[in-house]
Amino acid sequence: MKQAITNYLKDFDRAFCQQYILNHCQEEYQKIQETNQRLMDNRFLFNGNWDMEPCPHEYRLQPLNWESFFEDDPEWAYMLNRQEYLSALLLGYLVEEKVIYIQQLKYFILHWIEHVPTFHPQSLTTRTLDTGIRCFTWLKCLLFLIHFDVIHDTELETICQSMTKQIQFMKASYIDKYTLSNWGILQTIPIIACYYFLSDKLDIEEEYQFSVQELEQQIQVQILEDGTQFEQSILYHVEVYKALLELSILIPEKAIFLKPLLKKMAYYIEMMTGLDGKTVAVGDSDACATQDILTLSALFLNDETLCSKSSTIDLHTILFLGRKGIEQWKQWKSQPLLPKAHFFNNSGHVCIKSPSSYFFFKNGPMGSAHTHSDQNSFCLQYQGQPIFIDPGRYSYKDNKERMFLKSALGHTGCIIDQTPPEDITGSWSYNRYPQHLFCQYQTQLNNHYIEGAYQATAYAKSYLHLRKILMISDKVWFIIDDLQCQGKHTLATQFIVSPEVVANPQQLGKLQLISDVPLEVEPTLISKRYNELVTGQKLIKTQTFSNRIIDYTIIANQDCIIKRLPVYQSDGQLLESAFAFDIRHSEWNKLVLFVNDDIFKGEKLCLVDGIKMRGKVIVYDKQTGISSRLKS
Asked: Quick one: 359 and 371 in the same domain?
């Protein structure tokens, strides 16, 4: 036991880390001190960056009762029993050398052991997910307590006996569906790590052997070939990734085969990070800052490109990598934000980043119950400012706010006859979900083209929504919506606006909006963090149609001048279903052509402003004469 712990912490260098934190991390460490002041008084505030279910309000437990919960939300009790807040007390001791922090840390652990004698998978205190997280938290604390000799043998024995019992309970309660769930990985990884460091004190040989085999299957089943975790939620992708990353740091032998996977998963997190440094809140997720997890990833994977270098290294990374991580960080140079784009084809996510804009599009297969009805939705940030956003999740309770934020009604997209394409029957269940048909992405000469389609049902009538998005030179976005549904219907096209900008039908920040149908401002719900809800605004336009409608919305830099042009076939026939535009900017002048149907009558060559074109999506540079055919 001690040899494995010594090998892990031999290069930590407490004195070096202590001085670095005191000299360079005062602001972040002050938050740790505030947390510790609360914990010393049994006051709890779950406001951590990656907390699964944070809560903005502080509550005091006097006396300490592990079945307590507030906000009428049992998730508060789950957060309490995971005990991830213990890391703050550990950091407080490492920096200030105050024994009271260690005493309080051990008090919380030993009090829990004494007052939670029985385990049940559905209880407030011992759900298997929370049990796995708690055991992992205890282990990561014990490594330091043992290494710095601040735990008595009797205390260690009591804790290890409880960990044995909890791990045996997890194995006995394990069910098949955990193989395809973050719940499974967040149980098997703690078991493997606990065995590696404490096998001489834990009676878990059978549980360990099971976990090793099961983790391999979990990874194979859950992690898609493009590196995304299947649940269609960036939050739970990060939770699974963090567990795999920490396992690799704790047990170097595991890193040998996990690193290729970790690199793909980390790259996805990087691409899901907007210009504001936070994740897109896709699915059951919050908008979370990624600097900490990407810093740890960059250092461990030795990949400077994963994150922009901040002025200091974060405390979470220091706790894992110690002096070596700090010195490695000092040697790195700040990386410029270069334009990059990636199509995660297995999940149906497209991410396009540049120094001045960020764009995310989603049309993919149904994931887990954490998936929202957000097919063909998108998010946009421009010049450092969120413009169109994902509305978030707010709660896991069965209430109207939860249902609305899961529904297409809460997302940027199209609604037919005021009926969403899904039927939500509960916080974790659907009776109907829009069927993903395809998602495609092409890029040429700084032009990006995305196309996504899904099939759904409204009032027992099946309909098809095809959305085409063309991004030009980081300054113009064309949104083409093509919907087909037999009969007469009403179409509402809506865009969820960030609370950080004033919702205006013609202009958002430094962007102008162009539409044949006037946009109007209406209220909507937005939740950037779990348990936090605001009334925001959306832009919406409504129009009627029979059988089929093709509509466009243009989002453009305010300096662009855009004019719609007619499209003719070379035999002189007007191609009514096609769209063409002339775009003028101080730096360039381009023509854009959208041909929305195959041309099966007349000549197949198109003429736009005297320019001959052939293809369904074309960008023509009038200055260079170069044409980009993004769809043939």
From this structure: yes
Q: What pLDDT score was predicted for residue 334?
A: 81
Cα separation, 630 vs 608, in Å, equals 17
In sequence order, what DSSP letters do the residues of 573-622 get, joined into one string?
A: -B-TT-EEEEEEETTEEEEEEE--S---SS---EEETTEEE-SSEEEEET
pLDDT digits (tens, 9 = 90+) for 513-549: 999 999 999 999 999 999 999 999 999 999 999 999 9
Whether 370 and 454 map to the same domain: the answer is: yes
Full residue range of the structural domain in which residue 473 is found: 340-558
Q: How far apart are CA 441 and CA 467, in angstroms?
A: 12
Q: Is the pTM of this model over 0.70?
A: yes
Which of these, 408, 539, 405, 557, lies nearest to 474 by C-alpha position? 557
Domain count of the chain? 3
Kindly state whether residues 514 and 589 are assigned to the same domain. Answer: no
CA distances from 170 to 133, 139, 177, 204 (A): 11, 16, 14, 11
The tokens describing 392, both together, are 């978030």
CB 567 within 8 A of CB 451: no
- Whether residues 383 and 526 fall in one domain: yes
Q: Indicate the average pLDDT of the chain.
A: 96
Last residue of a domain, one of 148, 172, 196: 172
